[in-house]
Fold this sequence. Notes:
Elements: H1 7-16, H2 20-33, H3 44-51, H4 60-72, H5 100-110, H6 113-121, H7 135-146, H8 158-178, H9 184-200, H10 207-230, H11 234-250, H12 254-270, H13 274-284, H14 288-291, H15 295-311, H16 315-335, H17 347-361, H18 364-377, H19 383-399, H20 403-416, H21 423-441, H22 445-460
Helix pairs in contact: 2-3, 2-4, 5-9, 5-11, 8-9, 8-10, 9-10, 10-11, 10-12, 11-12, 12-13, 12-15, 13-15, 15-16, 15-17, 17-18, 17-19, 18-19, 19-20, 19-21, 20-22, 21-22
Amino acid sequence: MSRTRNTRLEAVIREWGLSQRQVAARFRTVAAENGATELLRYDQSRIARWIGGATPEGRAAHILTATLSRGLGRTITLTDIGLATDDTGDPMTTAWSVDTLATLATLGSTDMDIARRQVLAQSAYSVAGLALPPDSWWHEAADRARTRKPLSKHTVTAEDVTSVREMTAFLSRRDQQLGGRGVGRAALVAYLRTDVAELLAGRFPTEALRQDMTSAAAELAYLAGWTSFDAGEHPIALRWLTLATQLAEEAGDAPLAGHVLRAMAHQAVDLHQPHEAVRLAEGSLSSRRYAEACWREKALLGVVHARALAVAGYKKQAAEVLNRAEADLSRASQDGDEPARVWFFGEASLAHETAAALRDMGDLKGAEQQFKRSVRTRQAPFKRTHSVTLGYLGEVQVQQGQLEAACATWHQALDTMTGVQSGRARETVVQMRRALGPVLRRGGGPAADLDARARAVLADR
């Protein structure tokens, strides 16, 4: 049976100016970032087949649009490359226009067991998913929620809000201890899609109570997104973070919306989308999101903005932004402001983010000092983040030629990872082995022992 040549895809690839072999290599890189191991063997023959009219299977089409979008610096949709008549099937293209209760119901049901894997198999983290809504959406969000008709007969009380916040605090602590792949994540999503969804659909005696409940739900949706991010499930993490932003805006909680946008910027940095990260970070700092935040929150927003600027190549601007963030942090210390949020970042986490920004700016010595500060000040139960910080610290140490210190740090990181199920923690072990490669080829004894231990950790996970 003859196929119709896909001239749209052919034209987009021609515009990029790369050969089919080069496009296939970029495709495999994006596939690896999204955990699509089944696509890592795709080569130029697959690209040729798609141009010839074959239809990509599973999530290959979404990986392809993400690859092309990154290469051309603009959003490429399935329609643009002749693989759909419209883009209504892409959940991220309509995410901002769908009612939040409907999103919570569908996303909650798909983020469970087999159904979750099916969604992940048909999607990819992409530039298209990072598009923010127009200004009018932000202005109208609270009004839309305020006029929503109740779907449940339950009358929401202050005790209901307290219960949601207590559960969020408990699940947040569990995430810090066990990582985003821990069993607590299933409980988190189940609680969101049942109890919390019903409360949001209930009757609110006052506007203040509606705002409090919606803000509490937004924090829990943020936690669902963050655990997905930590587990390496980036497409679904982006959907949870988008929902958290929507709920925060419906609650009129601008600082929380800014915090979630900061998390989206952090994710974009980690997934090599620096310019999108800058845009998201700038969004987190705009208008009331920064103005109404406490000084410690402002410092965190600024640090992530600085890191995004650094990875995008704007080193001078990054240094200026980091200085402002440090000034905000000093004011926090003077004023003693302590936000009562479960996602509150203390000294250890701020030092970790500052170190990452300095590392990306090329200041390895400064990064080492801040990573050490983070290690020194972090509370004992936070095993997941602690292991990641130690992994990063060892990396900057070995980059400075401090092999013995790096090995000691990395052994400590592996000790801390016991019982932790985290995609980010696992990635630090992968990077650890990569950094040890040149040393092992020279026959390094301590490095060989560490590498053997790292291999065993990866095999166990």
